[in-house]
Specification:
This protein is of the alpha+beta class. The chain folds into three domains: 4-85, GIY-YIG endonuclease, CATH 3.40.1440.10; 100-234, no CATH class; 241-424, Nucleotidyltransferase, domain 5. It contains 13 helices and 14 strands. The strands form three sheets. Strands 7, 8, 9, 10, 11, 12, 13 and 14 form an eight-stranded mixed sheet that branches. The protein has a three-stranded antiparallel sheet with strand order 2-1-3. Helix 5 (134-147) packs antiparallel against helix 9 (215-234), helix 10 packs across helix 13 and helix 11 (310-322) runs parallel beside helix 12 (339-351). The protein is globular, with a radius of gyration of 24 Å. The model has no long low-confidence stretch (mean pLDDT 84).
Length: 429
């Protein structure tokens, strides 16, 4: 049995995959982690109740690990290693129908679909998995379809299918075959874990298209790159520390220059959004970035009272959040919205006597403009609007934080809306 003291000092605080190996160096178990050190420590620190884990530790002679740039890459690598080694302790994966795979079919317009037993499929171009976390791979495929739209219908028809008209299918069968196959190649690169080469390839294509004055094509490629970055960010992007510090330093410089507030070095950035449909249901979200990385353990959701739409909701969120003096204080607050939402958030900050220490800024979706209020004597006396070009480094991290706050708010809203709809249906019966 391997000793905790022997392995723990070697493990990094990074995303990756760990492999438990036996006496003959055979792989006994493969797992993934957002933080390798914390995850492996759990096997030793927790009170072990499962006989299977006790046996695994008894048989383990060493633990190897491979670091990745993000949790999503760890998920893909975990699947490849399980497929390669079929470890005994990965719960009968080979014959277990519960585990999902991603299959790509051999057709004129290949279908990307979730399958359970790929060896029984006779029309596969490639398959990936098994994925122990079915929820994760389902969510990743859903988001990946936004970046590289792929066919979701099982049978091709001469005309666009019902799903296309319902906006549940991108209608890729209406595009040129060569364009669609290019999308499939990019999806395969992603599922192979070749994310950095994929992004670099897209950047090269974007520069080429821009040089040839194909600006619409260049803009689409740029959007794809940003969406991949957002996807990685959501699943625990392993940041380039130098780039992240540069982003946060640049953000602080802008706030000092335009806001009139001089925050300390930005370690904690909080982002907020409001989701509502009329007066019936309004909710809010708070997401936290520590040194540029999302800390999901500190995310919060708020059920709000109607008070004039998004601005009123935004003030409610900030008032309630800032009442929690036991929570760490942010060095900057970002809201999803423009001047009205920023002013509402600022009002809450001022009421808590924090207007001199916490700057507030906003990011507008449609134009992707960063708005920074100029504060003098705890009052907003002017505004600075920064376009994408004038704040590109800052824009990347603000966009990721804003999009994460939006996603978190929408998820909570949908959850409560479905619950309310279900309850209403029961009452009518």
């Amino acid at each position: 049995m391997i000793k905790k003291e022997k392995i723990m000092p070697k493990l990094p605080d990074k995303p990756g995959v760990y492999l438990f190996r036996g006496e003959k160096k055979q792989v006994l178990y493969v797992g993934k982690a957002l933080n390798l050190k914390k995850r492996v420590r759990n096997y030793f620190d927790k009170e072990i109740k499962q006989e299977r884990i006790e046996k695994l530790l008894d048989e383990t002679q060493r633990i190897d690990f491979l670091t990745t740039d993000s949790e999503i890459e760890a998920l893909l690598l975990e699947a490849r290693l399980i497929k390669q080694h079929w470890p005994r302790y990965n719960v009968r994966l080979k014959d277990d129908k519960r585990y999902l795979y991603v299959g790509i079919t051999q057709e004129k317009y290949p279908q990307v679909a979730l399958i359970r037993q790929p060896e029984k499929e006779n029309n596969l171009l490639a398959w990936y998995g098994p994925f122990p976390s079915s929820a994760s791979i389902k969510e990743i495929l859903r988001l990946l379809c936004r970046v590289f739209p792929y066919r979701s219908c099982r049978k091709l028809t001469a005309k666009p299918c019902l799903y296309y008209h319902l906006k549940l299918c991108p209608g890729m069968c209406l595009t040129e075959v060569k364009d669609y196959r290019r999308q499939i190649r990019q999806i395969r690169l992603f599922l192979d874990g070749q994310i950095n080469p994929l992004v670099k390839g897209l950047q090269k294509e974007m520069k080429k298209a821009s040089g040839e004055e194909k600006y619409e094509e260049a803009a689409q490629l740029k959007k794809q790159i940003q969406m991949i970055e957002a996807l990685l960010f959501r699943y625990g992007l392993g940041h380039d520390e130098e780039k992240t510090q540069q982003q946060l330093t640049e953000l602080r410089k802008l706030l000092v220059q335009y806001s009139g507030v001089e925050p300390n070095r930005i370690q904690r950035l909080e982002a907020y959004d409001v989701a509502n449909l009329g007066e019936n249901l309004i909710v809010g979200s708070m997401v936290v970035l520590l040194n540029g990385e999302p800390d999901k353990s500190q995310y919060r959701q708020f059920k709000l009272q109607w008070s004039g739409g998004d601005p009123g909701g935004m003030k409610q969120i900030l008032s309630r959040r800032l009442s929690h003096q036991e929570w760490p204080c942010p060095q900057a607050i970002l809201v999803d919205g423009g001047k009205t939402q920023i002013a509402a958030a600022f009002a809450a900050v001022r009421e808590k006597n924090l207007a001199k220490t916490i700057p507030v800024l906003g990011l507008v979706k449609e134009k992707e403009l960063v708005y920074i209020p100029k504060v003098v004597r705890e009052r907003i006396v002017g505004w600075k609007a920064l376009s994408y070009r004038s704040s590109s480094l800052v824009h990347q991290i603000l966009q990721q934080a804003r999009d994460e706050a939006h996603r978190f708010a929408q998820r909570y809203y949908k959850k409560l809306h479905q619950k309310a709809t279900f309850s209403s249906g029961l009452k009518q019966k």
